[in-house]
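User: Here's a chain of 154 residues. Predict its fold as tokens.
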Amino acid sequence: MTRRPPAIDDESLIAALRLAAGRDPVPAHVPAAARAIFGLRLPGAAVAVPVAVPAPAGVRSGQEGRLLRFTADELTVELEITPVDGLVDLAGQVSPLPCAGTTVEVRTPHLTQAREVSATGQFAVTGLPPGWFSVVCRRPEHSPVVTSWTRIRP
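Assistant: Prediction complete.
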């Protein structure tokens, strides 16, 4: 039995030819989004990478909340993400204990919320939109530490 390739309609063929010729225009929102994201980079910042967090003993997997941990330059940022009414609450802790004047910024592509870190290293931001976020920790006399971008879903 001989197999034949599926028939291609004219519109699909023309679209494929435009793509191959490089004549398919880029949608206007794509370059704008790329410029906005490029503006969120922090040259010279240390990037904190995600580290696996074991589930606490006795916690059921279906319970609300999600734990994340990021580390870089002897600094650890731990986050608990909790969905609330379609938005996201984020509670975090920086360790080792921060010095006075340490701040964090929770960034999304559309907004930034800054908080001063308590003497115990804790901070919280509520009512974040679901989507991509990153946390920047700024300590006096240190380079900033920024977490990798992570997607949160309610």
